[in-house]
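[INFO] parsing input record for D-3-phosphoglycerate dehydrogenase
[DEBUG] input buffer:
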Amino acid sequence: MYKVLVTDGISHTGLKSLLDHPHFIVDRQPTLNTEELKNIIGTYDALIVRSQTIVTEELLQAADRLHVIARAGVGVDNIDVNAATRKGIIVINAPGANTIAATEHTLAMMLALARKIPQAHQKTAAGEWDRNSFKGVELYKKTLGVVGMGKIGTEVAKRAKSFGMNILGFDPYLTEERAKKLGITKAGLDLIAAESDFITVHTPLTNDTRGIINDEFLAKTKKSVRIVNCARGGLINEKALVRAIQSGHVAGAALDVFEKEPAADPELLQNPNIIVTPHLGASTVEAQEKVAQEVSKEIIDIFETQSIQHAVNMPQMSGETQAKLQPYLLLGDQIGQLVIQLLKRQAPGKINIHYYGDLIDEDTELLTRTLLRGILSYHLSDSVNLINVLHLLKEQGVSYNVQKNATNKGFANYMELSVSQGTETARIGATVLNGYGARIVKINEYRIDVKPEKYLLYIKHQDVPGMIGKVGSLLGDYQINIGTMQVGRAEIGGEAIMVLTLDKGLGAEVLRELTHIDGLEEAQLLELTNMDALEHGREEPQKVESI
Ligand SMILES: NC(=O)c1ccc[n+]([C@@H]2O[C@H](COP(=O)([O-])OP(=O)(O)OC[C@H]3O[C@@H](n4cnc5c(N)ncnc54)[C@H](O)[C@@H]3O)[C@@H](O)[C@H]2O)c1
Ligand SMILES: O=C(O)CC[C@@H](O)C(=O)O
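[DEBUG] output buffer:
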């Protein structure tokens, strides 16, 4: 059973798939304080939060079992993602599930700002019939500057166009072609400042975007500009905004998000030209159901099938790419494990990965992480996973290099992994053969054809007659059944290797006896101890013996 802790107000209906699932226990605790959360987090496998719960490094230190943190929404700025990554915890979100809600809230705020609706409502509700103080402005034929043309920015732009607005869009990823298709103008920040009657921000809060609307920017804006922020507090420098409104340069602002939440600054909250909502952008029945549904489904997928779609600390890939890469991922983990054993269990110093043939057209980042995890897992066991593997490599001072090559090395797809320490290098080449499955086709400089199995006996020997018989007979004496046997040699009569798949493992005694055979130089049992786990998603510690 997996235990899931749900903090913050998350839609009950949206959590249904988790609540009904026989493998999950869901615990809803929306009112925990930091200390209470820290005291109980150690017993949970997954945590679902909205924006209120702050997931700090300190909290994560107590999260011994935590495998997934799910943000039922988009922004993950309430989660210390780096600390989660270091701990190997997957952080997922639900991008897109609240796009429409946030878009509609932005438009509602823009219209309310233009027509002073909250101010008019307040006075009218208080019994005053004032038809003179609330003359607004129209959106029609006005220019809207959209900073951040991602999902929400784009939807806002589309809807604002239907009001007859001219749209200027700024986003490093906005191409001329997409701008043209949307019927908007691709602009820089300076043009947005100079031309816009309304400006709305829709970027995440990053080092680059913090204070993107500041004194300097506001000084370049048109007089009477109106500003909307339904993205993240901190994108607008609040002090600068208040100054610009007080001076009469900026006509007003509509804010759903604040530098500090809950917002308390009276200069903002009591300013007659600023309208505010308490971070309600995503607060619709539909959006809340959808974010909860999406993260629930993904949590089930992660624990039940290891498929991850929306991790913010993992490479993203489509389901189609994931399905295509699946056989390579399994093989990648296996050759990662084997290559480090071939290096005689030394810690890796340098790792080289080469992809050839069909693989060069795929997004191989996840495959690379899988290979690297296979290597590191020998020494670090299950503390290494696809999330923290790059961090751990860096921490261990291990460098890795990935190259893609269009030549096919005789196979439709081929990957080669080499690991070095000092002057020693171990190398494995592998492929997935259409209709036949995974094969190891190279070990060091020797060509071979071996299907990866749980127990592989690797023997280095002189290429002399009788060697196969002697090895077979000794293993027979110990009741060790041989599944397959493959030999590879560089030249007749020179050095050669033999790789046998065995039905069971063998101990140091057998290995020692093998090395007593004349002409047999080295015998090593290579063991893939997580074969079952790889297929079913659990990992077990590894054990290897060699002589
Ligand atoms: N108020 C709410 O309740 C609410 C609800 C949903 C989302 N949000 C917030 O809205 C924002 C946008 O969400 P989204 O789903 O559209 O995200 P998104 O990732 O689809 O889009 C963000 C866009 O910002 C762009 N960007 C990044 N840095 C930039 C920069 N320096 N200048 C210009 N553009 C830059 C990116 O290229 C990207 O296209 C996020 O901050 C999100 O957290 C708020
Ligand atoms: O959970 C919320 O209500 C806030 C959501 C929003 O800020 C987001 O980034 O998705």
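[INFO] The first helix runs from residue 16 to 19.
[INFO] shutting down worker
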